[in-house]
Design a protein that fits this description.
Length: 340
């Protein structure tokens, strides 16, 4: 297999990138703390400057790059493959160093079941153990889809090689359409992971708040399950907030009720933003946006919590602004991965 040597300006440690990997994948496999979030070209977190060498830019128009970035020869590591030895400039950090370096492996689809009218759980099994932290994601290489898609696991790491994903059928989405309508039980795809920095911090003693919207359910369920498995909820509280568009989109409570702390130190809160859609299920619960519900329930106590959240960009943006600007929650207590 062809490999290219990548040198990082200003530090001695370099790494090798395999020809079928992106620059980011090669760095993380080598244990380098390369900055990143979404792995899909949308967030711009993995920007680097190319000093020497040649790359194959997989998505020159990636949303994560500005015109100013392009003028300054900045590229996205998740969208570039080396075509020669490289020298690059990037600010690495220990917070991005993977606890478990990602691996690419074959995964067989063994089970599916519907969670809502448009969210389905897909369960894959690999021959090797599923080593990941609660809250992380993997890249799925889906037949008929040019680029891999990032989906979060809803279960927790396990020796049985089980990877569970709760995926929403996106209107017009090629990846989700292939998963829902083409992939059959017994079919195999490639799975690469784990990735993501918004994983459960097991050594933090603070109470926990999880906020999910849409298919952001999966990583937050994983966080809650991980906290329960690690005994963290014996002496800590976890508030789980779920924001749905309509009553028919509300989900997650039944999964949390399987945990021993449900109804005690584990509390579920659901809120619906649209209550006037035709032919929808009646709703007598909370209405509005999920970040406003967090404000109503937690209020001035927010700086005492560790926050994890996942969902549509407008939701995550509203939460960031509320937590950091309105309540002055320290940034190191806020954990999320942006998806696009």
């Amino acid at each position: 297999m062809t490999e290219y040597k990548i040198l990082i300006d200003g530090i001695e440690q370099g790494f090798l990138q395999a020809a079928n990997d992106t620059l980011l994948q090669g760095a993380l496999r080598a244990g380098i703390g390369f900055p990143y979030e979404c792995s899909s070209g949308g967030c711009g977190s993995c920007k680097f400057e190319l000093i020497e060498g040649e790359v194959d830019n997989l998505w020159p128009e990636a949303a994560g790059l500005t015109e100013r970035d392009r003028r300054k020869n900045r590229l996205l590591a998740c969208q570039c493959r080396a075509k020669s030895a490289l020298k690059i400039k990037v600010n690495t950090s220990s917070e991005y160093r993977p606890l478990t370096p990602p691996q690419r492996r074959h995964a067989k689809l063994v089970e599916t079941h519907d969670i809502t009218h448009d969210i389905r759980e897909f369960r894959f099994v690999t021959e090797t153990s599923a080593d990941f932290q609660a809250g992380q994601y993997a890249l799925l290489f889906i037949p008929g889809v040019a680029a891999p898609r990032a989906y979060s696991m809803s279960n927790t790491g396990n020796p049985n090689g089980e990877w569970h994903f709760q995926i929403r059928l996106v209107p017009g989405g090629k990846a989700s359409a292939s998963l829902f309508h083409t992939l059959k039980l017994g079919d195999e795809i490639d799975l690469d992971g784990p990735f993501g920095i918004a994983y459960l911090r097991k050594d933090v003693a603070r109470d926990i708040i999880c906020v999910a919207g849409g298919s952001g359910l999966a990583p937050m369920i994983s966080i809650a399950r991980g906290a329960s498995e690690n005994g963290m909820l014996q002496n800590r509280q976890l508030h789980f907030f779920y924001g749905a568009r309509t009553p028919d989109d509300v989900c997650g409570e039944s999964m949390l009720n399987e945990l021993p702390e449900a109804g005690g130190n584990l509390r579920y809160h659901a809120v619906v933003s649209q209550t006037d859609a035709a032919n929808q299920t009646p709703w007598n619960g909370e209405t509005g946006f999920v970040h406003d519900m967090v404000r109503r329930v937690i209020g001035a106590e927010m700086p005492k919590y560790e926050f994890y959240f996942a969902g549509p960009p407008p939701m995550t943006q509203a939460l960031q602004e509320m937590l950091m600007l309105e309540y002055r929650v320290p940034f190191e207590q806020i954990h999320f991965d942006r998806y696009f």
